[in-house]
Amino acid sequence: MSAEASTELLVGYPLNWQRIRWALAGAYSVVLGVFILNVGLPTERLALFAWVLAGLSIGSVGRGWRSVAGLVRDWLPFLGVLVFYDLTRGLADTLGMPVHVNDLAALESTLFGGTVPTVWLQEQLGQTDDWGMTGGAAWWHVVVTVVYVSHFLVTPILAAVLWLRDRERWISYTAHVVGIALLGVTTYVLVPAAPPWYAADEGVIPAVRRLSGLGWDVIGLDRAGALLDQGQAKVNLVAAIPSLHTAYAVLVLLFFWPVLNRVGRMVLAMYPLLMGLILVYSGEHYVIDVVLGWVCAAIVAIGVAAAQRVWRRHRRTDSPLRPAPELALVGGGSAD
């Protein structure tokens, strides 16, 4: 007997669980909207995933304990690895490795003919000058902030959608996400690197403003900006190499490229390119960091694809009479 039928027997009349789930989804949307308007957009990992899992759990209402168990089974290990990444990243700059400030700024300047692109961009757009004076917020800072903050939202939202639609592709996507996180934290430990705004504060390069949250001021969401500032203050400030904002944006491009048409590919390709430009302009990363973010995503994509090929061969060897379903490669669909 199903969970829904059992409940109907207990209460004495049939329940329309689909309507109940829709009502809960509506209430969830209202609560989330009120939270964002009054507190700000959550960018901290646990808070974000708490909202995502709360939304996904609505689909389990009235469907029995197996539905809940499946949610916990899939998401708890994934979330555990990402929380481990956050904790380890925060400790990376305390392990005694030298922090790269002067040499990274010097390399960036050498590559671009004596000019640091972040400094040049902010000077051209009126954010700084030779005396370090700063300009105010402009309309384009809304774009800067939206694209920057999208990094925190895209990964959990895409993971949730894939989990609902195609669990095999969800496994592939989360394997890429975890791979990028682990590769990133390894480099943070071995090569602690300061971003441009940090180098400017130390007097290594000319004045640079940290502009990633300035867009909130333009549209009057001061609390959202304060929440972002609080989150940024808690993380490792010298975890610039590679840029994982870039790496995850590239992952989205690589993962969905094969299933999009030409127009979709052109639109999607703008995301990592725009992300890179914004990271450099906002003072969050050097161009070097952005390029290494692309390299990080490519390394993980190649590694996961190789692991999946080994997995498929192993499954076929174990079940020679029944072909095993293939895990989706980067951007690939589920097995037919």
- What is the 3D form? globular
The parts where pLDDT drops under 50 for at least 5 residues are 321-336
Radius of gyration: 23 Å
Q: Which sequence of SSEs, written as H and E, runs from N to C?
A: HHHHHHHHHHHHHH
Q: Could you tell me the strand content as a percent range?
A: under 5%
Structural class: mainly alpha
Number of β-strand runs: 0
Mean pLDDT: 79
What about the largest sheet? Answer: none
Short description:
This protein is an all-alpha fold and 336 residues long. The protein has a domain of 223 residues. It has 14 helices and no strands.
List keywords for this structure.
336 residues, mainly alpha, disordered C terminus
Overview of this protein structure:
There is one protein chain. The protein has a domain at 96-318. The protein has helices at residues 3-11, 17-38, 45-58, 65-91, 102-111, 117-124, 140-165, 167-190, 196-201, 215-218, 222-234, 244-256, 262-281, 287-318. Mean pLDDT is 79; it is low at 321-336. It is mainly α and 336 residues long. The radius of gyration is 23 Å and the shape is globular. It contains 14 helices and no strands. Helix content is 68%, strand content 0%.
